[in-house]
Amino acid sequence: MTDNPHDALFQYVFSNPEHAAPALRTMLPAALAEKVDFSTLALAPGHFVDPELDGHRSDLLYSAKIAGRDAFIYVLWEHQSYVDAWLLLRLLEYMVRIWRSYRDEHPRARKLPPIVPVVLHHSKTGWRAARRFEELVDIDAASLSVLEHVPRFGFVLDDISRVDDAELSRRAMTMLGRLVLYLFRHSRSPEELFAGLGRWAEVLQQVVRAPDGDAAITAVMMYLRKVGKREEDEVVMAVRKAVGDSVFDQIFHAGERLEQKGFERGIERGIERGIERGKREGRRDTLARQLKLRFGELPVSVKEVLDAATIEALDRMADRILTASTLAEVLGTDTPAEPKPARKTPARKSPQRRPRGR
Fold first, then answer.
1. Among residues 21, 44, 119, which one has the least CA distance to residue 77?
2. How buried is residue 322: exposed, middle or buried, by Cβ count under 10 Å (0-12/13-18/19+)?
3. Helical ranges in 106-200 per DSSP H
4. Are residues 223 and 154 in the same domain?
5. Residues 177 and 243 in one domain
6. Cα dihedral sign for 234, 239, 240, 242?
7. Which residues contact 66 (CB under 8 A, 6 or more apart)?
8. Most confidently modeled range among 162-166, 181-185, 203-207
9. How many angstroms separate the CA atoms of 159 and 339, rounded?
């Protein structure tokens, strides 16, 4: 578990596609966002940042369908005071690591999925370095033809150093997502951070009232405590003032203390659940493609079976596809038994009474 509060809160919130999807929708260029099927967004396993840089940047990898094809969206969160002029070179290294990991997982793949790199940045000056890799290469106008042999890519930049609170509050994101970006943006000035909580009172209240609001507000308070270097009582008073006594008391009982280990375990469980979900959805999509290639368009009932299957069940189906001759053989015992339609019992006719002879 990371000791860095920025990293911990980033991982806790944006490991969940519920918060990541609307955040990415606002970060990506509109033309690209339109091509992303955000219903397929899933957290992919792995972190690719160099260990020695863990204290200054954090990363998350997502899989998604873009224009109908498998792709990755790689988000790098830069939380350092200066601008890294060589970030593009590091990004290239991280992307190569992602592709190598993909090749290990898919040895039969003939092509690599595209990676969309996204940088969430906050520094004292805002981003002032290159946005495209070829800008790092020393080439003059007389040798532009050399560019044909140089990696050429850019990244999507979300520089919250240059975004004010009013704009953040209008972003089409979840309340917790907006609140976290506010916390990141003001984290270098604890006085400014705590002074502005009152302006985010409505957002804080909605975060508390949302499902898992107790865990979310605990994560926020732990962040405030560590970044703001405040005593627990000061954090409690500041949040209580912002959300109101009645709302606060719905979540925290008098005398209850924040549990650092409990919070960290909660973050770990949240990330693990996201990774597990990403693995299962990746296996499901791969198996569905293989079944479609072999047996044609899949019935709705088969898609429902795949949606409900565990990772272990999907793996068993993937093994059977090599020898099975029918869909039923692939699904095998992993297909839930369909209830047999109830047999209709014909209504018994009451016997007609014959008239008595006189």
1. 119
2. exposed
3. 165-170, 175-185, 190-195
4. no
5. no
6. positive
7. 32, 35, 36, 37, 114, 116
8. 181-185
9. 55
**If you count DSSP H runs as helices and E runs as strands, how many of each does the chain have, helices first?**
15, 5
| 341 belongs to a structural domain | no
User: What is the pTM (predicted TM-score) of this model?
Assistant: 0.72
Q: Of the residues 161, 181, 201, which one is the last residue of a structural domain?
A: 181
For residues 214 and 293, membership in a common domain is answered with no
Q: How far apart are CA 159 and CA 156, in angstroms?
A: 10
Co-location of 74 and 205 in the same domain: no
Note whether residue 68 is domain-resident: yes
Where in the sequence is the domain holding 34, given as residue range(s)? 1-137+149-181
Q: Are residues 83 and 176 in the same domain?
A: yes
Identify the pLDDT of residue 357: 44
Residue 154 DSSP one-character state: B
The answer to whether residues 193 and 165 belong to one domain is no
- Give a yes or no: residue 133 inside a domain: yes
* pLDDT number for residue 333: 60
Tell me the per-residue pLDDT of 35-55, one tens digit each, with 9 for 90 and over.
999 999 999 888 888 776 555
Contact between residue 244 and residue 206 where contact means Cβ atoms under 8 Å apart: no
Same domain, 45 and 166: yes
User: Which of these, 2, 75, 5, 64, lies nearest to 33 by C-alpha position?
Assistant: 64
How many domains does the chain contain in total?
Answer: 3
Which tops the pLDDT comparison, 267 or 255? 267
pLDDT in tens, 71-90: 999 999 988 778 999 999 99
In a domain, 284, yes or no: yes
Cβ burial 51-80 (10 Å sphere, 16+ → b, else e): eeeeebbbbbbbbbbbeeebbbbbbbbbbe
Name the burial class of residue 340, with classes exposed (0-12), middle (13-18) and buried (19+) by CB atoms within 10 angstroms of its CB: exposed
pLDDT digits (tens, 9 = 90+) for 219-229: 888 888 888 88
Residues 31, 77, single domain; the answer is yes
Residue 38 — φ and ψ, nearest 5°? -70, -15
